[in-house]
Amino acid sequence: MYFKEFDIRWSDIDANRHLANSAYINFMSHTRMSFFIDKGITQQQLAKFSFGPVVFYEHIYYFKEVFQGKPIRVSLEVTGISEDGGFFEFAHNFYDHKGRNIAHCEILGAWIDLETRKLTAFPKELDYILEAFPKSDDFRILTKEDTRKYGKYPVDLI
11 is in which domain, residue-wise? Predict the structure, then answer.
């Protein structure tokens, strides 16, 4: 399991004086990018292969309020990757300074080719990075159907 610790800043607090939902999103994004960098998916690699991560959804479950003054820890576990590495699924947990679980999030994402702006497989030259990812106890191989398991599709106004 990967961890990142954060101090709660004034700008992370909402009108109710607790951690704003947008701060949870920002902390998870920072944790993911730190994880990628630590595992070898650096800005240089992203630029070299002209690809980057995109998020399809983040489902957050809040358990306890969080207030400014004490640090929090955000975990990341890899719960799924597709055969070609194109899709990934992570679980994040938030813990207060005493180690109590204050929130949980399930995220599904993919890699996008920054030139074609289309989803892409993970670069074969970097497969060794995916193979070394620490995996959760409930890790599974993702299929394209997993990306639509909630049955949500765009509905245009026109």
Answer: 2-148
